[in-house]
Every structure is written in C-alpha cells, then in structure tokens.
Amino acid sequence: MNNKFNNSSSPREIKYFLDKYVIGQEDAKKTISVAVYNHYKRIYYSYKAKVEIDKSNILMIGDTGTGKTLIAKSISKFLNVPFTIVDATSLTEAGYVGEDVESILTKLLQSANYNIALAEKGIVFIDEIDKISRKNDNPSITRDVSGEGVQQALLKILEGSIVNVPPNVGRKHPEQKLIKLNTKNILFIAGGAFEGLKNIISNRLNLSSIGFKKNVSIDGKDLLNFVSSHDLKKFGLIPELIGRLPIITNLNSLERESLKRILLEPNNSIIKQYKELFLLDKIKLKFTYSAIDLIVDKAIKLSLGARGLKTICEKIIKDYMFNIDLIKESLIIDKFDIKLKFK
C-alpha cells in the first residue's frame, strides 16, 4: 500500500487527488474518500483495533458517463494498489457458460503480477451491477444463472473469505493448481446506471402508510439522494448483496458546464491528451471556444455524458491524425470542422 497513505493521507487529501481527474460529483467524491480512507485505515491499524471494523465496500449509482469508472481508477492510482474492472454482465453462476465469479480475483491477481499480498489489498470495480438484478422482487423459482445466481456467488468474495482462484481466466479443472486468496481486505466498488430506480424511489416517497398519495415534491435529479435498501431490493438486488455494499452514493448526470470543464481542466483531459499527441509531432493543436461549445452540445444530444466527449473528439480528430505528416506547425479546430464531420 502507498506509504503516503500509511503516514499522512486523509479523506481531504484523497478528494483533492480526485478533483484533479474528476469534475463535479462533489458529494460522491467526499463519500468515497471517507469510505476508502476508513477501509485502508482498518487494514493498516488492524493490529491495534479493539473492535472488529466491517469492510466499506461501495455502491455507486449513476448514468453512463458520470464518472463511476474514473473515480475507481483514480482511487487505485492514488493508493498505488492493484486494480481491475469487471463487467458484471459477463459473469455467470459456476458451471454455466460465461465467467465464474472467481475470475474477478484472477484478473486482480494478474494486475498484481501474481503478488498475493498486493492483490489482497487491491481494488475491484464491478461495472453494470444493476444488469444482474433478479427479474422480479420475489425469490426465483427457476435458476437465474446470470442474475440472482451471480449475486449469490458474489456474496462470499465481497464479505471476505479465502477463495481458491485459478491462475488464468477460464473454467477450473481438476488438475489445475489454484491460488488461495483472502478477500477480507480487498475493496469492492460496484457501479451501475440502475435505470428505473428513480421511479421506484418516487413511488415510495409519494405513498403514505395507508396507501394515499402524500404531497411530496422533489426534483427528479435529486431522487437518488433518497435511495434506500428497500428500493434496491425492489429493483432486483438481493438483501444479502445490498448488505455487503454498505456505502451507497449517487452520481448526478453531468450538466453543460461540467462537460465543458471535463474537456479542458483535468490533468488528463481529452483536449490536453490530443494536444500532447500532436506536440510529439511538433504540431500545435488548438480548439476554438466555439468548437468546444459545439462538442459539448453534441455530447448532450447523444446522452452519453463524459464518455460521449471522447467519441465525438475521436471522430473530429481521426482524419487529421491519419494525415499528420502533411500538417505544418499548427492546426486549429473550429466549429466549421465539427459541423462538417456531423452533417
């Protein structure tokens, strides 16, 4: 683990680092900074603790492109710990076509170069956790191998236990040498868009205990602030899984000004990356203000959040990159270039 964390880091310092890469989402960054700080403090001072402190696994709820993956990646970068991303939709219950849940830990081991001690203090980001919700609010009668079955399989590794992990992603077989990995100190961060969750929250808030409508007025974008375990259960997460993701935070959809800042401000902003790539070929790249505004407008229209910015910029830049040897000294991208690409 990063010695800086051991000696002097604080939740404020973690958030300060996140601020360099993640625009907006102030409440989410604060919540996650505290949770991560407490998680690694729990590990570092475990020999002193008189009370057993539970894990601070995190659930992030937010639309595509709001920064869930970026936050998880940035946390691992700050702490200098092994990190892996897993798509929950690729997982199936053991014995069925697809990846076993143990493959998550295989990928973490690989990111740690098979250093078990390092992997056991790593971070796993499980993306699209909402896509493995069970089909209704009642326990399944028929086997749901990619939904409730996967949720059940995740419980063991999220809680903290010793798991036999195959050295390579794929099915276990009897002759295979397995690696024992203790998940007690691995931080699991799950994320998903949870489409339809706002309706569940809204229905709950607007119904009184005797069934009559209450006069509750909440802005739609703020509804996720009121999410409860009951809402997540109704959405399709099993109670045991909800219990193993005790820290819940939501990320708001990015508004115009935030998208503009994402393009320009972070240390690794998209525009800065392109400028650096062109500079390596001794070409000064510039985007006009009107071009930036138009890129943001296109991203909003596509409803892909920050992720859409990269897609749009790539389409604009591709031909210039292809002909980079023909460009002399400087290149200015203006709104007319963008309009031409998106006719």
Automatic annotation (TrEMBL):
Protein name: ATP-dependent Clp protease, ATP-binding subunit
Recorded GO MF terms: ATP binding; ATP hydrolysis activity; ATP-dependent protein folding chaperone; peptidase activity; unfolded protein binding
Keywords associated with the record: ATP-binding, Chaperone, Cytoplasm, Hydrolase, Nucleotide-binding, Protease
Domain Clp ATPase C-terminal: 254-342
Gene Ontology cellular-component annotations: HslUV protease complex
Start and end residues of each AAA+ ATPase domain: 54-211
UniProt-listed SUPFAM superfamilies: P-loop containing nucleoside triphosphate hydrolases (SSF52540)
Lineage, broadest ranks: Bacteria, Pseudomonadati, Bacteroidota, Flavobacteriia, Flavobacteriales
Pfam families: AAA_2, ClpB_D2-small
Annotated organism of origin: Karelsulcia muelleri (strain GWSS)
Listed GO biological process terms: cell division; proteolysis involved in protein catabolic process
